[in-house]
Structures are given as C-alpha cells and as structure tokens.
Amino acid sequence: MFGKIILIAALALIAWAFVARASQGAGPTMRYTVKPGDTLWSIAASHYAGDPRDGIWKIERRNDLSGALISPGQRLLLP
After folding, report:
1. What pLDDT is stored for residue 25 in this prediction?
2. 14-37 b/e with 16+ CB inside 10 Å = b?
3. H or E element that contains 33
4. What pTM, to 2 d.p., does this model score?
5. DSSP assigned state of 36
6. Mean pLDDT per segment of 10 residues, for the chain of length 79 residues?
7. Which residues contact 36 (CB under 8 A, 6 or more apart)?
C-alpha cells in the first residue's frame, strides 16, 4: 500500500515537472529613449503603477545606474 502511494506521488511529480513552465506574467523588457526634461521619477510614474520609487529602483538596477542622473538620448531598459 505504501509503495503505491510513493509511486503515485512520483508520477504526479514527474507530470507536474513536464507541465510546469516559466511565468510570462512580467512581460517583455521595453526600451525607452530619454527625452529632454525626463527624470527617472517621471519615467517610473508613467510606466509603473503604485509608488514611483519602486519603479526608479527597478530602472536603476536594470541599467546599472549609480544614481538618478540620466541624459537625453540615453537608452534605458524598462523591466
């Protein structure tokens, strides 16, 4: 009886491994070209819901920025 339970559990785990896949919920990475007058705050506020500080942190981290200084024409990846 215990052997059957182990076999069923193993088969269920194998079936789950074949069905499981990576989530695509985050969506693709977008590219954004900085325009004159743009700030990380304005970019984050227009592209992310909620608190713009979280969006700024994501943009800085994704683009390896050491601060909030950006310049027109700069291309940013928006996660």
Report:
1. 57
2. eeeeeeeeeeeeeeeeeebebeee
3. strand 30-33
4. 0.63
5. T
6. 85 76 66 95 93 93 91 94
7. 72
